[in-house]
Amino acid sequence: MTLWRLSNLLELDLSSNFLRGSVPLDVGNLKVLISMDLSNNRNLPSTINGDLNSLIYLSFAENSLQGQIPDSFGHLTSLEFLDLSRNRLSGVIPKSMEALSHLKYLNFSFNRLECEIPTEGPFQNLSAESFGSNEALCGSPRLQVTPCKAGSDHRLNRAWVLMLKCILPAIISAMLLVTLIIILVRYRNSKRKVPIRETSLPLATWRRISYYELRVATDGFNESCLTGTGTFGSVYKGTLSDSATVAVKVFDLRINRAFRSLDSECEVMRSVRHRNLVKVISTCSKEIFKALVLEFMPNGSLEK
Predict the structure, then answer these.
(1) C-alpha distance from residue 113 to each of 131, 194, 228, 239, 244 (Å)
(2) How many CB atoms lie within 10 A of CB 112?
(3) Does residue 133 contact residue 107 with C-beta atoms inside 8 Å?
(4) What is the pLDDT of residue 300?
(5) Which region is the signal sequence (predicted)?
(6) Could you state, in order of their start, the residue ranges of all structural domains in the chain?
(7) What's the mean pLDDT in 24-31?
C-alpha cells in the first residue's frame, strides 16, 4: 500500500472509518511518525510494530479489541500519549510498559484487565481515571482499585477461577444429561405401567359418552343407582340424555388388575358376537376414571 511508503509522514489519522483487519508490518517504514490515531474503527488488533521509535501519540480507543496487551507496546520509548480505552482487552498490563519514561497520558479504562497494576516508571504518576471500569485490577488505594492480596493467595485465587471456568461447564453439562436421561426413563416406564386407551372398540360401533354425562345419568354415582359390585368395581343403572337406560360398570383403579380387566372385556366384546352377550355402547377411559357403558339387562348380572 502506497500509504506505508510515505517515510516522512509525521501524523496519521484513520479514526472513525470502520476499518477492519490488521495493521500491516509496513507501518514500521514510517520512521518519523509521531502521531497515529486509529480510534473508532472495528476489530483492529492491538499489535503495533516496535520500530516506531519516534511515535509520541497513539490511540486505539473504541475498536472492540480483544486479547492481551502485547509486550511490544513497551518498546515505543518516545510515547507520551496512549489510549486503549473502551475495548475488550483482558489479561495483565505488561511490565515492559514501565520503561515508557516519557508517558504522560494513559487510558486503559472500560476494558477487562486483571491482576496488579505495574508500580514503576510512568505508573507512579497515573491517576484512577486511567484504570476505571476494570473490575479485576488491583493495586494502590490511590488508583481506586481493590488492594492486591499476597502473591501466593492471588495465584491461588486465579487457579481456582481458571479451574472453575474449565470444570463448572462440564459438571453442569453432565447434570443436565443425567436429568434428561432420568426424565426419559420415567416417561417410558409410565407409558408401560399405565397404557391409556381411549378406544378398545372400533370407533364406528362406539358412541361418545363423557364422564360428565355418566355422572348426570347416575345422579352422581348415587348409591340408589347402584345395582351391584364385583371384583374390579361397581355397576350403576343410569339414564342417558336420550332416555336410554344403560348399565355403567365403573372400575376400581386402586386394583392394578382393573386396568387389564377393562382391556380384556373390550377385546372380547369387540371380537365376539352372541345373542346372550351384553352389548357395549361405549367406554369412558381417563387417567383417573375408567368405565364401560353397556346395555341394561333387568335382573341380570354383569359379573357373569
Answers:
(1) 9, 59, 83, 81, 83
(2) 15
(3) no
(4) 58
(5) none
(6) 2-154, 203-295
(7) 73
